[in-house]
Amino acid sequence: MPSRFTSSREGNVATLFALALIPLVGSAGAAIDYGQAARTQAKLQSSIDAAVLAGAKDGSAAWTTAAQSTFRAAYGAAGPTPSFARDGTAFTGSVNTTVPTAVLQVLGFPTIAVAASASAATTTTALDESCILALDKGADASKSALTFNGAPNVALSGCTIRSNGSMRCNGHGTGASASIAVGTVSGCSNPQPGGAPVADIYAPLAKSIERKCTSATGATWRPGTPPSSTRMVTVQKGAWTEYHVCGSLTLAGSGALGAGTNAVIVIENGSLIMDDDATIDASGVAFVLTGDGTVASEIVFPNGKGKAATLTLSPPTAASHPWRGVSIYQDPALTKNVDHDWGPGTILNADGVIYLPNADLRIHGSPSSNNPLCTKLVVSTLTSNGAVNLKQTAQGCATLGVSQSSSTVTRLKS
Question: For residue 2, how many other CB atoms are within 10 A of its CB?
Fold first, then answer.
């Protein structure tokens, strides 16, 4: 008969419980350790999301600095170091680390690896693609800031016309791809009344204006013959020349102006005057009109029967040039004696931005563009009784560096 000791089973309960306790403790430990890893991964993800968004919104050559700083602020200075990369408008970031375990290390798992990544992209949407923009600052939206009278030859290609007031086309719809106004639209092509006002994005360029003159004697510039030094102050600005004309500048004769590539002609306390029968090519030149507001600041074309003048313009295009994309800029600080009345003999072949923000412009001649790349006329108000032939292409505007109002949105990519 077997002994009682060898046949007893009661003591095995403790042994079995001890053996069962190992996976139970392991499971509980795993839950604790993996919970900590999940919290770390969530913090990594939110931090790398914020970092990539910050870098994409910065968008400069030093965007990774902004991304790194944001990651450190979100995660903590003692955290892991993320890596970032850029491909065009896409910005990416990734980061990984390890989380020490408290229980699983007994089972041979001292750490748990966690990682996070994010990608963001910027999308730019054009808000204003107009050839003609009437700012009409502070005026009632019911006022017509753009008016086309009679049946002028108005040919607009690849662009809209916009008014921060209302607009009226009497006899010709203009052919614009859209006629957008804050107020009403009457008789114009593809009318879109009730639109949002367009901000003046060119006004901040005024910070680039410098004044050098102490007198205002005026000067005449004939092709290839700049005014004498007694009537003009010449300043070398790196790769281009800036000419400061003291008083009104008259352009006379026929031919290329000869100011140089990417030149700037600053007219201080005076007007830009086209002599009768003048035919001037000022390609690659920005004209800037500024002053103290005590004298007229206008663009004056011959006005009278049989009188005529032609001015051909294109802007500086150097990437770092402060006036890139701008052919004529009238200081927004000038508010008196800034209106323009261009006679029937006016021919203006213009590429780039013609910025006359406080001017009421009346056209009787032919502001047009001879095979233009991108033309934009910005005025306070415009009344046209003549021919207008303007054009824009996206590639042309990019080539010249013409800025348009736009909205840039940066989002994380799923």
Answer: 6
φ and ψ at residue 115, rounded to 5 degrees: -150, 160
Buried b (16+ CB within 10 A) or exposed e, 44-58: bbebbbbbbbbbbbb
> How far from chain centre, in Å, is Cα 368?
25
Q: What's residue 5's pLDDT?
A: 42
3-state secondary structure 197-222: CCCCCCHHHHHHCCCCCCCCCCEEEE
| pLDDT for 407 | 66
Q: Which residues pair with 119 in a beta bridge?
A: 92
Q: Which of 354, 346, 327 is nearest to 386 (CA)?
A: 346
The verdict on pTM exceeding 0.70 is yes
Residue 53 C-alpha from the chain's centroid: 19
Name the nearest CA neighbour of 134 among 111, 163, 172, 108. Answer: 163
Question: Cα–Cα distance between 52 and 66 in angstroms, integer?
Answer: 9
Q: What is the pLDDT at residue 343?
A: 85
Q: Are 343 and 365 in contact (CB under 8 A)?
A: yes
CA gap 82, 123 in Å, rounded? 24
Nearest to 142 by CA among 186, 176, 201: 186
Strands (E), 197-351: 219-221, 232-237, 240-246, 249-251, 254-256, 263-268, 272-274, 279-283, 285-290, 299-300, 309-314, 326-330, 340-342, 346-350
Consecutive 10-residue averages of pLDDT for the chain (414 residues): 48 47 57 91 96 92 95 93 93 96 85 95 79 88 88 70 93 84 93 92 95 89 86 89 95 94 95 96 96 94 90 93 96 94 87 95 72 85 80 82 79 82
Q: Which residues, 6 or more positions from 96, have their beta carbon under 8 angstroms from its beta carbon?
A: 44, 80, 113, 114, 115, 116
Q: What pLDDT score does 214 carry?
A: 86
37 CB-near residues (< 8 Å, 6+ apart): 99, 112, 114
**What single letter denotes the amino acid at residue 42?**
A
What does each C-alpha distance from 103 to 16, 33, 232 come to in angstroms?
A: 22, 7, 83
Q: Are 215 and 233 in contact (CB under 8 A)?
A: no
CA 270 to chain centre: 30
CA 29, chain centre distance (Å): 56
